[in-house]
Amino acid sequence: MGFSKDHLLARLQELQIDYSKYEHPPVLTVEEQAKYVSSSEGALSKNLFLKDKKNRYYIVSAMTDTKVDMKVLSQRLGLGKGGIRMAPEEALSELLQVSLGCVTPFAVVNESARDVSLLLDQKFKNQALCIFHPLSNDVSVSLNTLGLDKFLQSIGRDSVYIDLEANPVVGRDQPPDLAVYVPSNSVVVPEFPTKTASIQTASKNVSAEKTKPVASAKPSKLAGNVKSAVEDSALLVFKNPEKFVEEILDKTTALLLSEGKGENVEALAETFRKRLTSEFTHLAVMYKNTAYSQGFYAGTQSQPKRP
Amino acid sequence: MHGVRGGPIVSLLRRRKKTIVGRWNGVSGRNGGWMVVVLQVVVEVLDAYERGDKFYLYTGRGPSSEALHLGHLIPFMFTKYLQEAFKVPLVIQLTDDEKCMWKNLSVEESQRLARENAKDIIACGFDVTKTFIFSDFDYVGGAFYKNMVKVAKCVTLNKAMGIFGFSGEDHIGKLSFPPVQAVPSFPSSFPHLFPGNDKLRCLIPCAIDQDPYFRMTRDVAPRLGYSKPALIESSFFPALQASGENGKMSASDPNSAIYVTDTAKEIKNKINRYAFSGGQDSIEKHREIGANLEVDIPVKYLSFFLDDDTELEHIKKEYGEGRMLTGEVKKRLTEVLTEKVERHRMARAAVTDEMVDAFMAVRPLPSMFE
């Protein structure tokens, strides 16, 4: 289940983070939000949910008057000039578990967003208070960046503040300065319910209607872990015994069908060994490595035996 | 220096070991193969192996860019072959500190690149129960550092400047780096792997430009009471455009190499457009005198990547005698490389952060000699 706004606000209170809460009708844009929350309460933010070509996601949260040049940002991340664009709506609901108009730094509280990189405008630090949606666009919350930092720390994240308007040269001798913030894992978000039997069909929540969406988080399929839900079936080969065997038989029968005409059996057997040994060994090693890694990880998480 | 020099390692290995699991293609004995310099010490290590004294493998990578090309992978493929043939453990050093210093990367960026490169290395098919990958920033300390200090005490500033070409303008980080690359050659640097096994020999497959580090190591080893490591050095894999050793694949020239992230289309284009051909200028001339296999890049590449010996010999014969044309050879190469890259990509996609953590965990490897 994704975090709800009340859940989040309760967490802020638990952490003793000061904030002020403003309720208003649901708003989809900063302009609308500004009608209900005046700038005396704090600096409004614009929040972008972005995606690169390798299925890695980013939240960029900036002051409304900060110019965010997507081309420059893309280069500074080491993605080339056109490497970054707005993320599609499905990703919003799958990964951030918020609806349209709701992108907020707080969305990284969800497990599904663990691979989303959060980049904050360093101009926030000069503000007494900044305003974000607490996972729902019918509420705005203003708090100091120190409070935001404390919250992020509580979920194991470092706050990353960057000068979004900087335009440094990126070239052979000047590596992209923001490349370190590119997530190490990519996430595949399905557009349609997936075909594999083991995966339940997704229920789509928010659609691009004009009516203001209900600000509820979409219930996720597998405890908020989107990545495993939409694993490429090719990768299941290394995890799933049936798929592993299927892959081996597929390759073997394909070879049999292509080479088996009129060959005597001994020669065929030789061909099989020659052509398939290295490929199958590689497959088997990756299978072994996957199993070991899963066991290793389980080991790090396991509780010591009761005395 | 007396000893076996430049001899084909395959025949060397065959003389000492009756059966070899798989075989290594790109080793000399074939036209345009990868030159391998085999030193006397290697023969000793292999002889000792025959008598039952094991050894371990040590290789490394300086993680300087995310873009890995086939030239980077080949030394790892060779190391994997050695690991499988001899059933010995392997330590892989990621010199993130070195790149941080020499390429002026931030500490975080070099660590990040180290992990990214580790994924490509793992995708080559190393066995997690026999392989320990470590990054300098993570691992330097403890027994490893003690060995580093012991090594450092044996090398004067003047000597280091002579070996590595340091000058008064170089920062002291660079000066103190060589011991970091030296001490993985000593089993006592890895107490979690080889406890009490200080006499275990080390075999180092590496690129020829790493020689200064290991010459220093071999000089220092006896003074510390350690065995000298054995080296198998290889020359660089040729770039698409150049033949001979002066043209090596370069990460800064994308057209000089095939990257593991290239699409099938990009591979096809690169080979067709940039791969230097040893074929003749006109078809008539080609049919008459055949291709120049010494300089032909597609054939060189095929001799590394084409698994089927018989097919390779056939291609070399037909092409060398003018019956096969450059286009056909390039087409076959495109197929072979596309398949390899695709396989690598699939394996790479299966490498999770947990898997990297497992490979890099400081843990014992109980089945490392099985």
UniProtKB/TrEMBL annotation, chain A:
GO MF, one example: aminoacyl-tRNA deacylase activity
Domain annotation YbaK/aminoacyl-tRNA synthetase-associated: ranges: 24-151
Pfam families given in the database record: tRNA_edit (PF04073)
Gene3D superfamilies, A to Z: YbaK/aminoacyl-tRNA synthetase-associated domain
Similarity-based family: Belongs to the PRORSD1 family.
Protein name: YbaK/aminoacyl-tRNA synthetase-associated domain-containing protein
Lineage: Eukaryota, Viridiplantae, Streptophyta, Embryophyta, Tracheophyta
Automatic annotation (TrEMBL), chain B:
Primary localization: cytoplasm
One Pfam short name: tRNA-synt_1b
Subcellular location: Cytoplasm
Domain of life: Eukaryota
InterPro entries: aa-tRNA-synth_I_CS (IPR001412), aa-tRNA-synth_Ic (IPR002305), Rossmann-like_a/b/a_fold (IPR014729), Trp-tRNA-ligase (IPR002306)
Family to which this protein belongs: Belongs to the class-I aminoacyl-tRNA synthetase family.
The name this protein goes by in its record: Tryptophan--tRNA ligase, cytoplasmic
Organism encoding this protein: Brassica cretica (Mustard)
